[in-house]
Structures are given as structure tokens and as C-alpha cells.
Write a structure and sequence with these properties.
The protein is of the alpha/beta class and 245 residues long. It is built from 7 helices and 9 strands. It binds S-adenosylmethionine.
């Protein structure tokens, strides 16, 4: 236990490169939805977002909020219910349909002209729009800029080799005065192959630090029973707030 605690204190695992060549295809993600292998979904929403929601919103009204790799995150409804407009992107059409059904929201769907085969799903109230396509194709659809980004289960789900490209897309979507909340995990990557993938503090800095001021708001021990099946015995979640430099 002594050694383990030492690692926990430093919160950086030396073998961060071990997952570098891991690749999950879009088809594999879609299969997870079909087979209900969506252990990442939180029915009660994300507790740290709940805690920091007011800080994140800063009392501002009618914000545009982006959810990369949104799944059926219930937090999208939290923002919409407060009068903000939510845009998400998710490759699984099933996930998107489940979101609207579970939140009792009627919706319409139409093709996205700029991205062959892709669709947009819009709540009838008009304040939630979910793009069903690859995140990396999304810039072609000119979705505008955002005041807030909630990045949970997103950077950590992107294939490690695509992180730079991912951060470039994210930063291209920010509007002056933006705030960006990012959740990442720290665990021994030699024991669990991911996703979620392990993202170091240094990598967060490397990806976003030239454009954003970065503040680590929380480091929380989130270890629970299900993590034992990952072969790990500790996992820390870190929550960062990025603001304009
Ligand atoms: C770990 S889950 C997180 C979902 C959600 N953010 C949450 O907190 O519950 C990652 C999601 O991203 C989707 N996904 C993975 N790669 C994607 C990509 N390149 N473009 C769009 N969606 C993607 C997956 O289908 C999956 O639903």
C-alpha cells in the first residue's frame, strides 16, 4: 500500500505511452451502444459538473454549450432547462435516440448536407441539436462558436494519437470569453487498456496550454467496485477549467 500511495500522491504514472497506439473504431463504439456496454453513462449526471455548474455559467444567459462525444449525457438537459442552447456530437444514432426518448423530448431529424450520411436531431423546442457524425467531420457543418464546452468522456475516449487533432477542433469552436471544463482520469495504464484512456497533466498542458489558462479545480478519488474488473486498484478524476489566456 505504501508504494501505491506514493503513486497516488504524484498522480502521474510513468508508463503514459503504453496506450499510445490504441485505436477504437467508430464501429466499435456503435457496437457498444447496440450491446448496452455503456458503463460510462451516468444516469444521475456528473456530480462535479453539478458542483461547479454555477461557477461555469457565471450567471450568464442564453449561452451556446457544446458537448463533444455526447452519448446520452443527461447534463445536456440541465443546460437546456436553464435556457441555454446545447449542441452535441455523437456517432451512435441509437445513443441520440435514447437521449431524446429518456428525457421525454420530441424531436425531428434531417440530413446534414455538408456531411454525406450524417444527420442532425433537433428537440422540438429547438434548444438541443445533436449531430450524428464523426467529431472530426463536424467542422464541415459550420456549427458556429461556443461559450462553454463540457468535455467529459470525450478527450479520454478519443484515440490517443488523435488528441492533437481533437484539441484543435475544440479550440476552433471557442468564442471569446469561453469557459471549458475537462474531466480526465489518472490510473495505471499498464493494467487497463482503456477507454477511458489515461491523460497526464503534462498532456493537458501541451494540448491546451498555449491558448488557455488552465486551472485544476478538483482531484477526486472515484474508485468503485466496477473498476476492479479493469485490474486497477485506484483511479483519480481531475477536473480542469480552461479560460481564455
Ligand atoms: C465514453 S463515451 C462518453 C459519452 C458522454 N460524454 C458521457 O459523458 O456519458 C464516448 C462517446 O463518444 C462516441 N464517439 C466516440 N468516438 C467518436 C467520434 N469520433 N465522433 C463522434 N462520437 C464518437 C461514442 O459512441 C460514445 O458514446
Amino acid at each position: 500500500m505504501g508504494d501505491t500511495r506514493a503513486v497516488l500522491d504524484s498522480e502521474e504514472y510513468p508508463n503514459s505511452e503504453v496506450q499510445k497506439s490504441r485505436v477504437l473504431t467508430l464501429e466499435e463504439w456503435q457496437e457498444k451502444w447496440v450491446n448496452h456496454k455503456i458503463g460510462f453513462h451516468q444516469e444521475q449526471g456528473h456530480q462535479l459538473l453539478k458542483k461547479y455548474l454555477d461557477t461555469f455559467l457565471k450567471g450568464e444567459k442564453a449561452l451556446r454549450v457544446f458537448f463533444p462525444l455526447c452519448g446520452k449525457a443527461v447534463e445536456m438537459k440541465w443546460f437546456a432547462d436553464r435556457g441555454h442552447s446545447v449542441v452535441g456530437v455523437e456517432i451512435s444514432e441509437l445513443g441520440i435516440r435514447e437521449f431524446f426518448m429518456e428525457q421525454n423530448l420530441s424531436y425531428s431529424e434531417e440530413p446534414i448536407m455538408e456531411i454525406p450520411g450524417a444527420k442532425i436531431f433537433k428537440s422540438s423546442s429547438g434548444n438541443i441539436s445533436l449531430y450524428c457524425c464523426n467529431l472530426f467531420d463536424l467542422p464541415r457543418a459550420n456549427i458556429g462558436k461556443f461559450d462553454r464546452i463540457w468535455d467529459r468522456g470525450a478527450l479520454v475516449a478519443v484515440n490517443p494519437d488523435d488528441r492533437k487533432r481533437y484539441s484543435e477542433v475544440m479550440l476552433s469552436l471557442t468564442r471569446p470569453g469561453f469557459q471549458y471544463l475537462l474531466s480526465v482520469f489518472s490510473y495505471d495504464p499498464t493494467k487497463h487498456a482503456g477507454p477511458p484512456f489515461y491523460v497526464t497533466d503534462g498532456e493537458v498542458e501541451k494540448l491546451f496550454g498555449s491558448v488557455c489558462s488552465i486551472q485544476c479545480l478538483e482531484k477526486v478519488d472515484i474508485f468503485e467496485e466496477k473498476h476492479k474488473s479493469w485490474g486497477i486498484d485506484q483511479i483519480i478524476e481531475r477536473l480542469y477549467l480552461f479560460t481564455e489566456k
